[in-house]
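Q: What does the assembly look like in three dimensions?
Context provided by user:
Components: three
Sequences:
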Amino acid sequence: MNKNSSNIMALTPNTSNKRETVCIFGTGDFGRALGHKMIQSGYPVVYGSRSTQISNLIPKDAEVLSHAEAAQKAAIIIIAIQRQHYNFLIPLAEILHGKVLVDISNNLKLNQYPESNAEYLAQLLPGSRVVKAFNTVSAWALQSGTLDASRQVFVCGDDVEAKQMVMNIVRALGLTPLDKGSLLAAQEIENYPLQLFPMWKFPIFLSLGLTAFFFFYCLALDVIYTYIYEKKNFSFFIAITIPNRVCPVMALILLALVYLPGIFAAIIQLYRGTKYRRFPDWLDKWMLCRKQLGLIALAFASLHVVFSLVSPMRAFVSWRTGKGIISQALNNKTEPLNNTNAWISDSYLALGILGFFLFVLLGITSLPSVSNNVNWREFRFVQSKLGYLALILCTAHTLVYGGKWFLSPSAYKWYLPNIYMLSLVVPCAVLVVKFVLIFPCVDRPLTQIRQGWERNPKHSE
Amino acid sequence: MNKNSSNIMALTPNTSNKRETVCIFGTGDFGRALGHKMIQSGYPVVYGSRSTQISNLIPKDAEVLSHAEAAQKAAIIIIAIQRQHYNFLIPLAEILHGKVLVDISNNLKLNQYPESNAEYLAQLLPGSRVVKAFNTVSAWALQSGTLDASRQVFVCGDDVEAKQMVMNIVRALGLTPLDKGSLLAAQEIENYPLQLFPMWKFPIFLSLGLTAFFFFYCLALDVIYTYIYEKKNFSFFIAITIPNRVCPVMALILLALVYLPGIFAAIIQLYRGTKYRRFPDWLDKWMLCRKQLGLIALAFASLHVVFSLVSPMRAFVSWRTGKGIISQALNNKTEPLNNTNAWISDSYLALGILGFFLFVLLGITSLPSVSNNVNWREFRFVQSKLGYLALILCTAHTLVYGGKWFLSPSAYKWYLPNIYMLSLVVPCAVLVVKFVLIFPCVDRPLTQIRQGWERNPKHSE
Amino acid sequence: MNKNSSNIMALTPNTSNKRETVCIFGTGDFGRALGHKMIQSGYPVVYGSRSTQISNLIPKDAEVLSHAEAAQKAAIIIIAIQRQHYNFLIPLAEILHGKVLVDISNNLKLNQYPESNAEYLAQLLPGSRVVKAFNTVSAWALQSGTLDASRQVFVCGDDVEAKQMVMNIVRALGLTPLDKGSLLAAQEIENYPLQLFPMWKFPIFLSLGLTAFFFFYCLALDVIYTYIYEKKNFSFFIAITIPNRVCPVMALILLALVYLPGIFAAIIQLYRGTKYRRFPDWLDKWMLCRKQLGLIALAFASLHVVFSLVSPMRAFVSWRTGKGIISQALNNKTEPLNNTNAWISDSYLALGILGFFLFVLLGITSLPSVSNNVNWREFRFVQSKLGYLALILCTAHTLVYGGKWFLSPSAYKWYLPNIYMLSLVVPCAVLVVKFVLIFPCVDRPLTQIRQGWERNPKHSE
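A: Here is the predicted structure of the complete assembly.
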């Protein structure tokens, strides 16, 4: 009680006398952890176990009985045993009739069985009222009270009253129940704790691969080439200079890759003349991870901003600045302000700032709580209109900054192009094709197709 | 099925055999898109159509029957036809009796009809159980699977069981149902997709107008005046220097405008001696868009921060710095550190940083998910106490930075004040009046009034 | 009506004729404010009052009757009176039988009474259907329409139908009802508006204390020492230099304090050989405020970043830079690039940037809407793996930056260590112990213990 009272978030009514007895089948780790927590919250707990001999591991205020006896004592029975052993419940069907059975099991793999564990349990015991709950809570977190992430407990079940009873227990334990509907949702709930950023895998591996490629490309051209041909040791470029070259390149390419699948989709639809045929699989997958690609692009862009902003604090930069000024002073002359240079430097900085600003705006609107508060029109406006504007600004930023490199022969060390040029290929292609697509003669049929019109109705048969 | 399985977020149980037949009235774009999606998710779909002749556009696994025949085959009927044609359902009233009718319609204008479409449908067919759903989902998004924004499906209806059935379908399609209560909520749900940032319109137009004004004001004073009278071409100021003058001015003015209506409200209440009379309309509207004004102010402040931070990277700034150092070197002397300058420069930077920090904190607490997690006292503490502190710090930042301009005649080009001075008018006025309002002799009656006391009870009759 | 229609978010159906009469017991401030709002939304309102003489304060469209008469006119009765006066309702028990009673009361202290007000009301009038609602809404906000924070109305009650009726009213007033379950939740709902950042108190006071200590420590060593022994006035260091020394120290120490309790917990579990015994109270409390500690650490880190980035704009820094360059120019020589310095400067900047980047990522995932969207495995991955990586990077950043100070005697002014050294104690200790804990010979038994194994089962008896 002591511990719980320190947790102001999990205030539980102290009217323990009201609580109904809860039965737990199974004395494994999770069964014990849940029992401890329930006893703390004032529930009388009775364990159903094969050996009714009292184990030391079981909370000492709990009773241990045979399964049948324990089940008779409570209206709610928590099934803390594994799916493989559900069969042993069949002989108890009569006792369990009408009782609320809480399925808390998890699987080891996604979609391991054709039906969810909870649905399987409901099939085995058609007279019982099965509720799925607690499977997303970790036993360790329950025990230690460190429930930062997983206060949410997904609950589903076909019987509304049974669900209500389970949700009341969830609340009494200081957790937040979330009703996911009928038992059909059990499969989704069971898959939930098995996922580790499923939508992020492809974007992250793609980014890592590209980053490694560009890093070594820059290393070769900027450090190794300089060392071989100019005998200068610029190895410290590895820390900031090269990352600050790779980051903007990655940000621009990934941002372009966010908009590329939309371009492909439009072309495919124009070519097919219908929207009622499925896109190729790779395009579908690509479209589904656009948000993740965009957020990784934003991460690279943010790193680029910070890497750039620290540059005046770098020893190398202050040395280079000082050298320039000293050589002017020693030559006894002051160079006048080069107006073109001032224009170029100011405008690429301004373009970059505005592009980054829009980029951050896109990132904020993709926060779940913000995107749930905007409707479809608003989301499309931000993600499509402002997104393209960000892409245009960032491409322009790169063009203005790196434009001078295109014609300079020194940019082609070992006959390889500078990475600025490589970074511009995808975004420029996207922008050019998009520019073509918004011409009325292309846009009109595309809009018609997206509203359901078909060029060759035969095709969809 | 292939496509769906690639979308791990939208896992649907594969137990298709359980699904109940769904009937769709209407073979328009949305009806077809929904039918496709339902067939993919394992629902047998039957279309009710005037011409039972099978159209090529209809998903090939779906049956097409007359309205009456189709309705008899299913317990749930999706009404994918427009409100104007709802009349034709009246002859079917007997067949539709007890059936769940899902109204998915939208209007073209906000509050187009006195009652919502769903309520109208319920009036036409009093024996049916009408549920509003799916109107916020775009057909195109449903078709293409790109449901980033709109996984949420608002559902409302008077019959709890009917609503539950519809919410189960929503879940099976991989979407998230959100119960909005009884059919009374239908009007709100129908208005929802028609809005494009309704609360943002006024703040955005105001900001655009003021920004344009200040931009041209600065352009005139900083570029044109300098060009005419000093023959210097500083046209590149357009890219960074002028935006970085306009942004802080806009941020400060908009932040003050967030707190100004509260000041007006207090004065009006003090004058009237009661809180039970309505504020003027313009004040009500103003108060309702304070959050938006604050967020736009934060956007300007962020731009100001980044514009300022890049300044050492500008060609113009490094040229100016170099020139200063070279002239000292050529004169063979080193200027000693000016302690006053060091104090002024450090303190306005520190004030600006702290003000911006509080400003960002205010922005974070206004994120929906954060503000839903704080209670009224906490929200008031942050938005009012910390908000005023941010305003004080930002005003002080501007005063310390721009203080020297007030007395310098060079700041009055063409007899116009520098925009620093203009920017200080509103915030200083707000702070002065607020300072008066917290005096006990003013604060006490105000608190009483806000707790329900009235000076002249006659007034409220 | 005029005012309401300006608030597009709170669109209420204008079909006023349908609304059922609502009765309000009590004519205090909140009762009146709620009555006003309900009349605006089209509800006929009747007040129950001891003196049926019409008061001027009551909305003029409302009827005022005796309690018994008023109660008979409506199915829903809002109890806007204080808990102490609930007794007077007992004689009305028969009239109130079957009616929906809405308890809107709040207490003055947390857990003031053994049971919540709503449960007390339900005990007094067992025949009525009690629903808790509206207690988190402020009367002033209701009156003025400025409901930015508290659109959410927590509703709980044992009768589902009664709850539904109240939630419909909540919606009609333009607010968002949130069903918190049965009446058991009333205590939590009543405590809610009384809390002012309860979990933040300890972390904030700790931070303020430490900040003050480090500030004066730096002030003594950097300003006073320099003034006494070197006769230099560096008082302006108070504005930026010293804050920028305190902020990173605080960020690093607080970040280490986030991970320290986990280390203690592991050691205690290893020592005890079981996880089934409660941690000491201080450790429990500490673990529960780790998120808050982490967010304050992030705030300090962000301030450190901005304070560092503005440094090139400081008058002192440009003076110092200029002096260095001029002295080189006057000596007619250019120092060559010091490669070691370049490496050190670039690597501590890069380490700091990456550490801060991960730190921000941790902050974003702790936003409620983001952490609700990740499961337990994902949350642990981010908060534990990435968190430790951030701690390692930030510690390395400090070590590389401040490493030179350890051996320099000038760093020990007044025989006191520089604060860089102080700041490294806790993080280094945490990292060293954590490093020991991940050795297999230590990690294996710890993992077993966390999965429920016990070394001395006797202990738990």
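Follow-up: Chain A touches chain C through 79 residues (CB under 8 Å).
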